UniProtKB/TrEMBL annotation:
PANTHER family: LEUCINE-RICH REPEAT-CONTAINING N-TERMINAL PLANT-TYPE DOMAIN-CONTAINING PROTEIN, OS01G0149700 PROTEIN. It comes from Hoylesella marshii DSM 16973 = JCM 13450. Gene3D superfamilies: Ribonuclease Inhibitor (3.80.10.10). This is Leucine Rich Repeat protein. It comes from the Bacteria. Keywords: Repeat.
Length: 403
């Protein structure tokens, strides 16, 4: 880089050279000519702010009329410094994750940053890194935290991407989308997840089975521990997908006013079902195949969900009468719990397609009102319960109803 700075009626040629050593060390050499004297500075790993301060000290005689020009020059140099920092972070990322063997690595280390496969740049900064199903192998390097303008980060379907989530990833406070699904990440989800307040989508769901080998063994490479209370800091979050992991607990109350889809199925979650506060936008709720126990909260009947899956838990008690207000629900799955009592309240669901009630302790007679005011109803599965009544068709648009 080469800049010219003016001081009064004098011109100061400024030469700035960047050297990269071992893909990690950033060395600046500055040569400044002032009053017929040459001064050279060598500053290893200098920060952008330190560089700006040095440049400012070299032109103390600059007039107010020329201040705008100076500030623009300093701003441009600072931009180039941060762009170089992004480049170095990605070089480290490439080396740490065996970039030479990626399925696609066009442009990496050879072309300008904007031409690297999977990388998007705006105003000289990396804003998106998307390398889905690209044979990444290894552990995420700490240097990922230096991509301070990153908004979208997607490394899903790289099953050899392992290790824990580096704490530095929580420094990326401009992230809108973080997708690390179908990887082999282990460890826990830090409380610092609450720092990512710009997130719209958080995807870390995976397979419950070992995807690396042709077996049906349980997947050992999962996230464990608690889903942090700080998840409630993510007020912009629309999609929360943490299913098929090994989480054992979660907040008692979820307060995410923009949440549209919540997938926490097939984990190891224990305790009572969580309450959902300010959940007017919630459309899909998957809590199946956990270890939840106790009754279904009455508040669930006031959700505006289209899909509600609570199957394969240890839920007890009866279906809340509030379920009569589930006017939007299309898919309702309560099967394989220990629920009891009547199912008649479910005849009041006007838009339901499928109702799964199998393997519970429900009693009573199968109501003839099923399907009467439910024009879309296709199936009601009551197998494995104590419901009385014969298998029947409800109307021409409905499949068989099984005892």
């Amino acid at each position: 880089m080469k800049k010219v700075m003016e001081s009064g009626n004098k011109i100061l040629p400024l030469h700035c050279q960047v050297e990269i050593k071992n893909n990690r060390e950033l060395t600046w050499k500055l040569t400044i000519k002032k009053n017929k004297q040459m001064k050279m500075f060598k500053l290893c790993c200098i920060s952008a702010l330190s560089m700006v301060a040095l440049l400012a000290s070299c032109g103390s005689d600059i007039t107010s009329e020329e201040q705008g020009t100076k500030e623009k020059q300093v701003s441009n140099m600072k931009s180039r410094v941060t762009e170089s920092s992004d480049s170095l972070a990605l070089v480290d990322f490439y080396n740490a994750l065996d970039g030479g063997h990626w399925y696609k690595n066009e442009g990496w280390l050879e072309k300008p940053l904007k031409d690297w496969y999977g990388v998007k740049v705006a105003n000289g900064r990396v804003v998106s890194l998307c390398l889905v199903h690209n044979n990444l192998k290894g552990k995420l390097p700490e240097s990922i935290g230096k991509l301070s303008r990153l908004q979208r980060f997607n490394l899903s379907y790289n099953t050899d991407l392992g290790g824990s989530i580096p704490d530095e990833i929580y420094n990326l406070t401009e992230l809108k989308s973080l997708k690390l699904s179908f990887t082999s990440l282990t460890g826990s989800l830090s409380d610092r997840i609450g720092c990512l307040t710009s997130l719209d989508s958080l995807d870390m769901w995976t397979s419950p089975w070992d995807m690396k080998h042709v077996t049906h063994a349980q997947n050992p490479d999962v996230l464990t521990g608690a889903i942090p209370q700080t998840i409630n800091n993510l007020k912009k979050l629309s999609f929360l997908r943490l299913g098929r992991q090994g989480f054992t607990s979660m907040p008692e109350v979820i307060d995410l006013p923009n949440l549209v889809e919540c997938d926490l199925a097939v984990c190891n979650l224990k305790g009572r079902l969580p309450q959902f506060k300010n959940a007017e936008k919630l459309k899909v709720l998957y809590l199946s195949k956990n270890k939840f126990e106790g009754g279904i909260p009455d508040s669930y009947g006031h959700l505006k969900v289209k899909e509600l899956y609570l199957s394969n838990n240890n839920l007890t008690g009866s279906i809340p009468e509030s379920f009569a207000h589930l006017s939007a629900v299309q898919q309702l799955s309560l099967e394989n719990n220990r629920l009891s009592g009547s199912i008649d309240v479910l005849t009041k669901l006007p838009n339901v397609y499928c109702i799964y009630l199998a393997k519970n302790d429900f009693t009573g007679v199968f109501s003839p009102l099923f399907g009467v005011k439910q024009p879309h109803l296709m199936v009601v599965d009551c197998t494995g319960t104590q419901i009385m009544g014969q298998t029947k068709y409800m109307n021409s648009s409905i499949s068989k109803v099984k005892k």
